[in-house]
Amino acid sequence: DIQMTQSPSSLSASVGDRVTITCQASQDISNYINWYQQKPGKAPELLIYDASNLEFGVPARFSGSGSGTVFTFTISSLRPEDVATYYCQQYDNVPPKATFGGGTKVEIK
Amino acid sequence: EVQLLESGGGLVQPGGSLRLSCVASGFTFGSYAMSWVRQAPGKGLEWVSSISDRGGSRYYADSVKGRFTISRDNSKKTLYLQMSSLRAEDTAVYYCAKGRRFFAPWGQGTLVTVSS
Question: Beta-strand (E) ranges in chain A?
Answer without folding.
Answer: 4-7, 10-13, 19-25, 33-38, 45-49, 53-54, 62-67, 70-75, 84-93, 96-100, 104-108
